[in-house]
């Protein structure tokens, strides 16, 4: 049997890396970064509201209504994502048409 | 001797399967919420040098999490036990034994005391039990990594929900259904880091604690 070396918890004091430098190593193109962070901002706005509403709920109430609200918000965000994708495709199509016409 | 490890880096030793996806997202979101950065082996190519690269990754991380909640026979024939995770745990334990100031490892499980049965040599090691839930992962991360000003589990859940709802965009963009692929993992990290920034802004504004 080996001796236990795993502590229950560690106290972290190292500073949190600034946002810009912490995403540098991910090597994601700037345009893609912007698109993903914009999507996150919209999702954040929805879930922050849900969270604020849930503050005064009992856990039983949250279990019954919170799950439904979570599902509805998720579906709405997915729908928004689909619309964005359709818009992007339409724009790409237009650009291709104008390029081929030229 | 390898260079000093990144003090915020956490090597994630987890199963890469469909049923584990929500916990996978929870680990990534939770670690960023605590100011830590997750690393996976998924970006490491196969071949002879893969094991060397995995060891180098472990050595570059100050911490590691080994989730052994799904060490079981694979569903596809021939039924085979998952051995990569215990192998990587073994490498980590050896490294930490040799250099205890450079590495600290944590064991995660979903069921109490199962680890004593599946790995009796680890008897005496208390695993963090997440019960197979997102909330379980987030609250155990807060227990394992204590940091001043860390957000509450409720605030972390908001971050999780926002990231999780954006996953379809990542998968569509990558043209894949594999959330564990290297490129997908990187985009997931971007969202989780973005969510951590929003949580911190909320804490500063007194909206989240």
At the fold tier of CATH, the topology name of one domain in chain B is Rossmann fold
Q: Of all protein chain pairs, which has the greatest interface, and how many residues does each chain bring to it?
A: A-B, 48 and 55 residues
Cα-atom radius of gyration of chain A: 22 Å
Radius of gyration of chain B: 17 Å
Give a quick account of the main beta sheet of chain A: strands, pairing sense, barrel closure: none
What's the quaternary structure here?
heterodimer
User: Could you describe the largest sheet of chain B, including whether it forms a barrel?
Assistant: 5 strands, parallel
User: What would CATH call the architecture of one domain in chain B?
Assistant: 3-Layer(aba) Sandwich
User: Which sequence of SSEs, written as H and E, runs from N to C of chain A?
Assistant: EHHH
Shape of chain B: globular
Assign a percent range to the helix content of chain B: 40-55%
Summarize the structure.
Chain A is mostly helical. Chain A has helices at residues 19-24, 30-54, 59-101; one strand spanning 10-11. The model of chain A is unreliable at 55-66 (pLDDT under 50).
Description:
The complex is a heterodimer of chains A (102) and B (209). Chain A has 102 residues and is mostly helical. Chain A has one domain (27-101). Chain A contains 3 helices and 1 strand. Chain A has helices spanning 19-24, 30-54, 59-101; one strand at residues 10-11. Chain A is elongated and about 65 Å long. Chain A starts with 9 loop residues before the first strand and ends with a helix. The model of chain A is unreliable at 55-66 (pLDDT under 50). Chain B is an alpha/beta fold and 209 residues long. In chain B, 47% of the residues lie in helices and 13% in strands. Chain B has a domain at 6-147: Rossmann fold, CATH 3.40.50. In chain B, strands 2-1-3-4-5 form a 5-stranded parallel beta sheet, with helices on both faces. The relative contact order of chain B is 0.16. The chains are: A mainly alpha (102), B alpha/beta (209).
């Amino acid at each position: 049997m080996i001796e236990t070396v795993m502590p229950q918890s560690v106290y972290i004091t190292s500073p949190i890396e600034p946002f810009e430098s912490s995403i540098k190593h991910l090597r994601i193109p700037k345009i893609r970064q912007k698109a993903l962070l914009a999507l996150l901002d919209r999702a954040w706005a929805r879930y922050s509201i849900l969270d604020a509403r849930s503050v005064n709920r009992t856990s039983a109430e949250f279990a019954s209504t919170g799950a439904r609200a979570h599902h509805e918000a998720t579906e709405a965000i997915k729908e928004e994502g689909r619309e964005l994708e359709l818009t992007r495709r339409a724009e790409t199509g237009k650009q291709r048409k104008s390029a081929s016409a030229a | 001797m390898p260079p000093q490890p990144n003090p915020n880096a956490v090597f994630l030793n987890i199963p890469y399967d469909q049923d584990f996806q929500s916990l996978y997202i929870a680990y990534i979101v939770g670690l960023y919420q605590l100011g830590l950065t997750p690393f996976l082996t998924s970006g490491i190519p196969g071949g002879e040098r893969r094991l060397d690269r995995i060891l180098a990754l472990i050595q570059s991380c100050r911490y590691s999490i080994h989730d052994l909640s799904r060490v079981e026979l694979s569903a596809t024939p021939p039924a085979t036990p998952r051995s990569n995770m215990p192998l990587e745990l073994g490498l980590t334990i050896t490294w930490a034994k040799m250099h205890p100031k450079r590495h600290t490892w944590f064991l995660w499980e979903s069921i109490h005391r199962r680890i004593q049965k599946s790995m009796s040599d680890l008897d005496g090691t208390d695993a963090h039990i997440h019960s197979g839930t997102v909330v379980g992962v987030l609250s155990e991360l807060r227990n394992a990594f204590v940091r001043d000003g860390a957000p509450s589990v409720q605030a972390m859940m908001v971050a999780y929900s926002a990231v999780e709802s954006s996953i379809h965009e990542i998968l569509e963009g990558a043209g894949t259904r594999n959330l564990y692929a290297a490129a997908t993992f990187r985009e997931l990290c971007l969202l989780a880091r973005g969510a951590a920034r929003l949580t911190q802004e909320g804490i500063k504004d007194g909206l989240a604690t």
